[in-house]
Specification:
alpha+beta, Aminopeptidase, 7 strands, globular, GNAT family N-acetyltransferase, GNAT_dom, transferase, acyltransferase activity, transferring groups other than amino-acyl groups, Acyl_CoA_acyltransferase
Length: 172
């Protein structure tokens, strides 16, 4: 098994749309997917990914970010999005890195390796310390973040008051 982070391309369009459908089917959103849940068309989503990386036409609450697909032997198993900097909102709730693993591929250790690889990519874009967050109820994600060196700074209530977010810092 060789896991790699690759850039989105048409080669993975069908798998990406299937990934989206799997999350919608279980009533979740694919974190780390540049709002993939809102795009039924791969090319429209890819255009957003490219614009976000280039910093083109970004709303005030968005920052430049790099999107990766997590692939094992040609199969899409996860998504990673690395934000190049933080806004005050991202500093409180979302952090530098968003990620997800396909619902059918969970509990196989993929998230830990995926996050470890994303830290290498974050370092390449010049980040020295990254913030990774998760909902307090997401114990699997908290364990994943801790396995790659995440140190819990604190817990905050989300702006909508519905969740408690754990904020972990990782030194690169």
């Amino acid at each position: 098994m060789t896991m790699e982070l690759i850039r989105p391309s048409a080669k993975y369009s069908e798998q990406l749309m299937e990934y989206r459908a799997a999350f919608l089917h279980v009533g979740e959103q694919p974190y780390g997917g540049t709002s993939l849940q809102n795009y039924a068309d791969f090319n429209e989503w890819l255009a957003k990914v490219i614009n976000q990386e280039n910093g083109d036409k970004l709303p005030s609450n968005r920052v430049p970010a790099t999107q990766f697909l997590t692939v094992i032997d040609g199969k899409l198993v996860g998504l990673i999005n690395i934000r190049h900097r933080l806004t005050p909102e991202l500093l409180m709730e979302s952090g530098h890195i968003g990620y997800s693993i396909h619902p059918e591929e969970r509990q196989k250790g993929y998230a830990t390796e995926q996050l470890r690889l994303s830290l290498q990519e974050a370092k390449k874009i010049g980040l020295k310390k990254v913030l990774v967050t998760c909902d307090k109820t997401n114990i699997a994600s908290a364990k994943t973040i801790q396995k790659v060196g995440g140190i819990l700074e604190n817990e905050l209530i989300t702006s909508d008051g519905k969740e408690i977010v754990q904020r972990y810092w990782i030194e690169l």
